[in-house]
Design goal:
Elements: H1 12-32, H2 49-69, H3 76-94, H4 106-128, H5 138-167
Helix pairs in contact: 1-3, 1-4, 2-4, 2-5, 4-5
Length: 168
């Protein structure tokens, strides 16, 4: 049977922890950088969605592989990655002139970070149980990577369309 989520492991506690850390750091950075120079979107928009898709998928794939390799090293890499990404996103959000600019992040960001945090949670739970082998996780890895591809499709084609329709 194709078992996508291993119900024996309690990985969801890590998932909740990762979201808490991520959102807390974003909020802290946003609050302390509130007076930052605000950005306004340009009216000149030139999107090459096919090129953007491969660039985005490539960068997201590197993070995906980095999280998988953390199974061989330590959970510290995962925590560092979450905090660094949260700082970056907090700085980005604090530079938005209008809150509507969140439309640039939410469609793909929610799915993208859910996939990455779920992978990180599964990796951390396997480290806790002494399992550092990838073979039992192949179905989960494939399923999560498909989610990452879907997030890249949304970021490449849907997000630019939403920007053009609602923000410009």
């Amino acid at each position: 049977m194709f078992n996508i989520i291993n119900k024996d492991l309690k990985w969801y506690k890590y998932l909740i922890l990762f979201w808490f850390i991520f959102l807390s750091v974003i909020l802290i950075v946003y609050l302390f950088r509130y007076d930052a120079t605000k950005q306004v979107l340009s009216y000149k928009v030139d999107f090459n969605s096919s090129y953007a898709f491969f660039v985005i998928l490539g960068k997201n794939s590197l993070v995906f592989i980095y999280i998988l390799l953390s199974m061989r090293t330590s959970k510290l890499n995962i925590y560092i990655s979450i905090v660094v990404n949260a700082i970056y996103i907090g700085l980005l959000i604090s530079s938005f002139k209008y809150i509507e600019y969140l439309l640039l992040l939410l469609p793909h960001g929610a799915l993208e970070f859910m996939v990455l945090f779920t992978l990180a949670a599964i990796v951390c739970e396997n480290i806790d149980h002494g399992n550092r082998e990838y073979k039992p996780l192949v179905n989960q890895i494939i399923f999560l990577y498909i989610g990452l591809v879907i997030a890249a499709v949304i970021e490449s084609w849907l997000t630019p369309a939403l920007v053009i329709k609602f923000l410009l």
